[in-house]
Amino acid sequence: MLQLEPGMMIWTWVTFFVLLLVLSRVAWKPLLSAVESREKSIADSLQKAEQASAEAQRLLEEQQKNMLTAQESIQKMMKENKDLAEKIKNEMMERAREEAQKLQQRAKEEIERETEAAVLQLKKQVADLAIQAASRLIQENLDNKKQRDLIDLYIKELDQLEKN
Fold it and tell me: What is the mean pLDDT of the chain?
């Protein structure tokens, strides 16, 4: 069986405490400083990671805000361009209407002038025919001035009849 010897027990304890003293002076401090430095580097790394995460989150929020601003700006520009295009379209339509009205008015005026010229030409031809017919009927030779006066009188009477 196992027996405890007091001398051996004393030397074991003395050896243990001496070894503990040597290790605490030689190995314990470097081990503690290595653990502390490792602990500090881990804490620094965690802090840097948190800072980087916060910075990334801030940049992401800023980027999202910039995207929203850009989208709003694009929407605004598109609306302005659409409004401008509509305005230009309306202006062009109005100018085209005005131009068409001007052309129509010019055409009416031209038709009226042509009609007046044709009526005048027709009156002259009717007058000439009337003079020829009258001179044949009367068998009298009137001079040119008397014929014109007579025709002008006849035309005035016709104009007055047309107006009434």
Answer: 86
